[in-house]
Design a protein that fits this description.
Elements lengths: L21 E6 L7 H17 L3 E6 L1 H4 L6 H18 L7 E4 L5 H10 L4 H5 L2 H7 L8 H15 L5 E3 L5 H18 L8 E3 L34 H9 L19 H14 L3 H8 L4 H27 L2 H30 L17
Parallel strand pairs: 1-2, 2-3, 4-5
Bound molecules: tryptophanyl-5'AMP.
The site of tryptophanyl-5'AMP (TYM) has 26 residues, from strand 1, helix 1 and helix 7.
């Protein structure tokens, strides 16, 4: 009889080295992509693709998006725009597997199994649900509450070993490990990997341009708080010029940023865009007033982001081509996920698992 109240102290530890090195990550197709998504996630997805040594699987998580209301036409537009954003940022659909979640039914199927593994107590601790549902938790969808179990399924349907994300996703990744460990323990198997979160770089938490205590987010009502990947050069420069700062010049050492959230945020953004360390930025710009640093940051942001937004609009002119690429990515994703789902069903005791899609491919790692 499995323990249903808490995690085991000593879950069976599957050895990660036995799994194919595989990266999985996802982004919700809601609103426009902003600089936080780009620096915290997208740019790092591209780096991991280009570094080699990993299979890379990237997903537009449309099933997650509908946990809060989405206008159907807008969801379709946002999914295609996000796909264009991935490709314009440097994801190559031939080298990475790029698709939208709903085209691979194994995500939702595995999520149901995980709904039966995860415990209510674990889900109730998820801060993102509390933040998103706010005071109206009774009105929130059941999907919003169950969201992290679907996220675990996204990752574990591929036996992904590494998941690059921004800092706000850390708790969800811990839950993913908890679900994998409990499944392995309850069924006495060594089947799901305990995935490694990859939360690295200067920009794992890009903050609002108007309030250094709040993260940059799609849902902030003020557009001045964020830089969108679709913003033109003038909008980017204006938002950086108006970004909140304090009256002091930049400090002479990285430690001098500690109590200065807004200054730290702009320096972090600079470092991430330029692919250098915070210490390098301070070595170059320390002591300068914001009236000098902000134009330098604006130039860097425009030089980096303009080619991406230009390429995104070009790609958006041919939605049929985007759809074709996503269908191809989904077919490749299913080849990986179907045998893993089939084996999961077998472990759980579902009759007929041997005749499911993927039964011809018993290799699941
Ligand atoms: P989402 O769509 O909110 O954000 C996508 C990615 O962008 C990162 N991010 C940020 N990074 C730095 N600073 C910020 N201000 C900032 N805002 C967002 C997020 O950390 C994320 O990496 N639940 C996920 C999507 C998801 C997923 C998955 C991720 C679904 N299934 C499986 C990884 C693996 C989400 O809502 O991300």
């Amino acid at each position: 009889m499995p323990d249903t109240t808490s995690l085991q102290d000593d879950p069976i530890q599957p050895d990660l080295s036995r799994f194919t090195r595989r990266v999985f990550s996802g982004i919700q197709p809601t609103g426009h992509l902003h600089l936080g998504n780009y620096l915290g996630a997208m740019k790092r997805f591209v780096d991991m693709q280009n570094a080699g040594g990993f299979e890379t699987v990237y997903c537009m998580v449309d099933l997650h998006a509908i946990t809060v209301w989405q206008q159907p036409e807008e969801l379709r537009r946002a999914t295609r725009e996000l796909a264009a954003g991935f490709i314009a940022s440097g994801i190559d659909p031939a080298r990475s597997i790029l698709f939208n979640q709903s085209q691979v039914p194994e995500h939702a199927q595995l999520a149901w199994i995980f709904n039966c593994v995860a415990r209510m107590g674990w889900m109730k601790r998820m801060t993102q649900f509390k933040d998103k549902a706010g005071k109206h938790a009774e009105q929130a969808s059941l999907g919003l509450f169950a969201y992290p179990a679907l996220m675990a399924a996204d990752i574990l349907a591929y036996h992904a070993t590494h998941v690059p994300v921004g800092e706000d996703q850390k708790q969800h990744l811990e839950l993913t490990r908890d679900i994998a460990a409990k499944f392995n323990h309850d069924y006495g198997v060594d089947f799901f990997p305990l995935t490694e979160p990859v939360i690295e770089g200067a920009a794992t938490r890009v903050m609002s341009l108007r309030d250094g205590a709040k993260k940059m987010s799609k849902s902030d009502p003020s557009d001045m708080t964020r830089i969108n990947l679709t913003d033109d050069a003038d909008a980017i420069a204006q938002k950086i010029r108006k970004a909140r700062t304090d009256p002091e010049p930049l400090p002479g050492t990285p430690e001098g940023l500690e109590e200065r959230a807004e200054a730290r945020n702009l320096v972090n953004i600079y470092a991430a865009l330029a692919d250098v360390s915070v210490a390098d930025v301070i070595a170059e710009h320390g002591g300068k007033p914001f009236s000098e640093f902000k134009p330098a940051l604006a130039d860097l942001a425009v030089a980096h982001l303009s080619p991406i937004s230009g390429e995104m609009s070009r790609l958006m002119q041919d939605p049929a081509e985007i759809d074709r690429l996503l269908a191809g990515g989904a077919a490749r994703a299913r080849e990986l996920a179907a045998p893993i789902l089939r084996r999961t069903y077998e472990i759980v005791g579902m009759v007929g698992a041997d005749r499911m899609v993927g039964a011809d491919k018993p290799e699941w790692v």
